[in-house]
């Protein structure tokens, strides 16, 4: 669990290209649920990927907790990511999918079992740990993807449009699910979306972005109840 700090963070994909992200300054509080909101191409994913370490930054500094992570590779950043195409391993059971990240880190078997069961309890997926992903509904699969992300108890949780492949009804349900999950584990979260309703209902604060620039950072109440 940690605070995330962005100091003048910029990204340019090529020397002569426009900035995809320009001079971002953000102070994300420990355990906050922060939403990046803006139209396609405004730089939401780029920013998230820089926090994850999946994209080099062109300028500025990113801190996770007290650590300057600019030169720290993704696997050492202690963060988990969830994408819209929740990439579960098709040939592994739900249990094995959730356990995978711990197994490759040689975590002892009994600890893995505890961690998977804890994650399964939070997400209410304990009754189908033996199934394969293809035997699950879209919503169940997305919950397994969330299980994979929380099982290591990361310092931060990064979600990039995790619900955009789901149908409308499921999306509403999963929104509530993610909020519940966030309350239960209290991990600092950045959530990317272009959906105003999602931003409004989920965010502690919303970062409104446009063309690589932060336009406003505030609570949903302030952003949507302006006179
Ligand atoms: P969003 O997530 O808000 O849709 P992105 O962060 O994906 O926005 O993109 C921001 C800008 O950076 C866009 O202009 C996009 O075309 C550009 N961009 C994103 N990824 C790359 C890339 N790998 N190479 C070059 N340009 C990119
Ligand atoms: P896990 O499911 O535990 O993330 P993976 O094998 O998928 O295990 O990834 C190993 C490590 O590499 C992760 O802990 C993570 O730090 C990093 N990593 C891999 N893919 C990503 C990603 N898409 N986003 C962020 N980090 C990633």
UniProtKB/TrEMBL annotation:
Listed A to Z, the keywords are: ATP-binding, Nucleotide-binding, Transport
- Using the record's annotation, list all stretches that form the ABC transporter domain: 4-227
- Which one of the record's GO molecular function terms can you name? ATP binding
> What name has this protein been given in UniProt?
ABC transporter ATP-binding protein
Gene name tied to this protein:
msmX
Full protein segment contained here = 1 to 227 of 372
């Amino acid at each position: 669990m940690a605070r995330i700090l962005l100091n003048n963070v910029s990204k340019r994909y090529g020397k002569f290209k426009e900035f995809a992200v320009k001079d971002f300054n953000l102070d994300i509080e420990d355990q906050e649920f922060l939403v990046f909101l803006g139209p396609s191409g405004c730089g939401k994913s780029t920013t998230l990927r820089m926090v994850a370490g999946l994209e080099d930054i062109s300028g500025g500094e990113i801190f996770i907790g007290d650590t300057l992570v600019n030169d720290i590779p993704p696997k050492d950043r202690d963060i988990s990511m969830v994408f819209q195409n929740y990439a579960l391993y098709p040939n592994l059971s739900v249990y094995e999918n959730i356990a995978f990240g711990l197994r490759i880190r040689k975590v002892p078997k009994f600890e893995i079992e505890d961690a998977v069961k804890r994650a399964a309890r939070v997400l209410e997926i304990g009754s189908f740990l033996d199934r394969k992903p293809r035997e699950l509904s879209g919503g169940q699969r997305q919950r397994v993807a969330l299980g994979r992300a929380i099982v290591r108890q990361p310092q931060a949780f990064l979600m990039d449009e995790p619900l955009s492949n789901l149908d409308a009804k499921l999306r509403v349900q999963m929104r509530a699910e993610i909020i519940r999950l966030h309350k239960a584990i209290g991990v600092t979260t950045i959530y990317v979306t272009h959906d105003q309703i999602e931003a409004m209902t989920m965010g502690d604060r919303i970062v409104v972005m446009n063309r690589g620039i932060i336009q406003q950072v505030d609570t949903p109440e302030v952003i949507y109840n302006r006179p």
